[in-house]
Write a structure and sequence with these properties.
The chain is an alpha+beta fold and about 180 residues long. The protein has one domain: 2-Layer Sandwich (Heat Shock Protein 90). Helix content is about 40%, strand content about 25%. It contains five helices and seven strands, in the order H-H-E-H-E-E-H-E-E-H-E-E. A hairpin with a 2-residue loop joins strand 4 and strand 5. Helix 3 (about 45-55) packs parallel to helix 4 (about 70-90) and helix 4 (about 70-90) crosses helix 5 (about 135-145).
């Protein structure tokens, strides 16, 4: 919580901007905590975490992936990452205009006895985006916090159509074997 609050003020010129960022980020964590409480802190479904974060954007966001129960830590980190991606898309990317949309997907597959996981965020039909000139809390979440779960750094591409964000790595880094696919 302290990191969220202190990093939310970094680079902000107005207290109101920082306050709005703090409130939005804490609301994101609170939503995920509700999901975790429902499961006695034993994990949360990735689809529920993602849908909770993108619900304000309705049918402009398409979510697709198998049922997957994340550990509490992974669920909270995914909530923050998706929140940051959605916030940036609403301010600068595909969700900032009337025609843009976002596709979010994840998958897993077995390869050489290991379960591999891939998560993708792809913006379409938005305005051209450029890499940020300064990095703040959102960049730290997307690049560093999510990297803690994987051996490969997340990939962020700033394309003419919008941002593409991809995470790939071991499924075991996100969940316990017993909860990979729990029936809905």
């Amino acid at each position: 919580m302290l990191a969220i609050v202190s990093r939310s003020f970094a680079g902000k010129l107005a207290v109101k901007d920082a306050e709005a960022a703090v409130v939005a980020r804490l609301r994101s964590l609170a939503q995920t905590h509700d999901l975790l409480i429902d499961r006695d802190w034993q994990g949360a479904d990735l689809a529920e975490v993602v849908r909770s974060e993108v619900s304000p954007y309705g049918d402009r966001v398409h979510v697709n992936g198998p049922h997957l129960i994340l550990t509490a830590k992974a669920a909270q980190n995914f909530a923050l990452a998706v929140h940051e991606l959605a916030t940036n898309a609403a301010k600068y990317g595909a969700l900032s205009n009337a025609t843009g949309r976002v596709e979010i997907s994840w998958s897993s597959m077995e390869s050489n006895g290991s379960n591999l996981f891939t998560f993708r965020w792809r913006e379409l039909f938005g305005p051209p985006v450029l890499p940020p000139t300064q990095k703040g809390f959102g960049s730290a979440v997307l690049e560093q916090v999510m990297a803690d779960h994987f051996e490969v750094s997340p990939r962020i591409d700033f394309t003419a159509a919008g941002i593409k964000y991809e995470l790939s790595g071991s499924l075991e880094a996100l969940t316990t074997e017993a909860s990979y696919y729990e029936p809905p």
